[in-house]
Amino acid sequence: MSKSVPFILDSHCDTPSQILRFRNLALDNKWSHVDFPKLVRGGIDASFFALYTPATLSPDESTAAALRMAAAVYDSVEENSDVAALAFSTDQIMENKEKGLVSILLGMENGAPIQKSLSMLRMFYRLGVRYMTLTHNGDNEIADSAAEGNRWHGLSPFGREVIREMNDLGMIVDVAHVSDETFYDCIKYSRAPIVSTHSCCRALCGHRRNMSDDMLRALRDNGGVIQINFYPCFLSDEFNRVLAESGIEEEGDRIEAAFRADPADPAKVSAWHGILDRLERLERPSYKVVVDHIDHAVSIAGIDHVGIGSDFDGISVTPAGLEDISKMGVVFDEMRRRGYSESDIDKVAGGNFMRIFKAVETKKTL
Ligand SMILES: [Zn+2]
Predict the structure, then answer these.
(1) What are the DSSP E strand ranges found in 222-352?
(2) Ligand 1 centre and the CA of 14: distance in Å?
(3) What is the mean pLDDT of the chain?
(4) What is the distance in A from the centroid of ligand 1 to the CA of 339?
(5) Helix 213-222 crosses helix 180-189 at what angle (to 10 degrees)?
(6) Distance in Å, CA 135 to ligand 1 centroid
(7) CATH code at 331?
(8) What does each C-alpha distance from 277 to 27, 258, 260, 282, 316 come to in angstroms?
(9) Are residues 231 and 248 in the same domain?
(10) Number of domains forming the structure of the chain
């Protein structure tokens, strides 16, 4: 029996920051997880490119950085119009697929660039941003983050206005990175289903960024979806122990900060690549652990509420056997081995996210 090829949507890739590091996405880059040759080889139909801004930037710096990345994505997709096209809706994703093109969509990771302004939020929507991760690793004007969580104890009063405006616009509310209190506030205040675009299960790995079983049940009742992240630090407590014992992390943070500040300096680039090589040589969790998280999320939330959000290009180390987006198929092959039907695989590979995207864009309310 020949296996069918699922429609694949990856809801979170940090590729815009790679473009800013002078990587040409037309080429198969050794150090990138995502570029056009890899997207095509992996049979990816749609990928959300995240406009990520760190919590350390000032409001003006974060807006400028988000716009710079959006411009870079527009340029890069236009330069590769033989294989890819931008998409701003579920219909456009399907139209691009008909033409044999990979759809690139924009998400925004950290709401800081809207600067406490609903007008700015509307302009980012017009620019093409179709989901917004409310925070990154710091509390902001909108909400508390899982990494801090002390400023508002959930959504701020402005954050509640943001949720209402996102619902009105048809922009997906993304709860990856938010605190538990913010998550439950989003469940309470959003009129549309919500998504975690790149998170794992706390029952399998205790990282506070991951979702508890109670959160998974709340997400199911909300009609939302958890998109499973591939980052070994979110997949495996054992890997966190291995990483801590290796001592690479502290040195890596320092070298990465120097590289990010000056990505054209060959010495800083090669020092960073040296760190990536050392991380890859650690005992990494297998890609099968990604499927363990899919299994767990399915067992708690149900098959209609689980998908894929790799976090590729935003993570410094990957699972063994799943080193870049061209290898995505191993996840679905493993699901087949574990007895999932083709229609179940279709849901996880992209169908569930598309259902929610459609509900949000047509402003269907809960
Ligand atoms: Zn993230």
Answers:
(1) 225-228, 306-308
(2) 8
(3) 95
(4) 30
(5) 20
(6) 9
(7) 3.20.20.140
(8) 20, 17, 17, 9, 10
(9) no
(10) 2
Cα-to-centroid distance, 42 and ligand 1 (Å): 22
- Tell how far the Cα of 341 is from the centroid of ligand 1, in angstroms: 30
Contact 145, 135 (CB under 8 A): yes
Residue 243, beta-bridge partner list: none
Full domain range(s) for residue 254: 239-284
CB-CB contact of 174 with 195 (8 Å): yes
Rounded distance from Cα 98 to ligand 1 centre (Å): 31
Residues 68 and 103 in one domain: yes
Residue 185's closest CA among 152, 225, 140? 152
In the structure, what pLDDT confidence band is assigned to residue 20 with cuts at 50, 70 and 90?
confident
Claim to verify: residue 193 and residue 275 sit in the same structural domain? no
141-186 pLDDT per residue, tens: 999 999 998 999 999 999 999 999 999 999 999 999 999 999 999 9
Q: Is residue 366 part of a domain?
A: no
Q: Are 76 and 102 in contact (CB under 8 A)?
A: no
* Dist CA 106 CA 120 (whole Å): 16
Asked whether the beta carbons of 6 and 347 are under 8 A apart, the reply is no
- Spatial CB neighbours of 221, under 8 Å, sequence gap ≥ 6: none
Q: Any idea which residue has 């990154």 for tokens?
A: 136
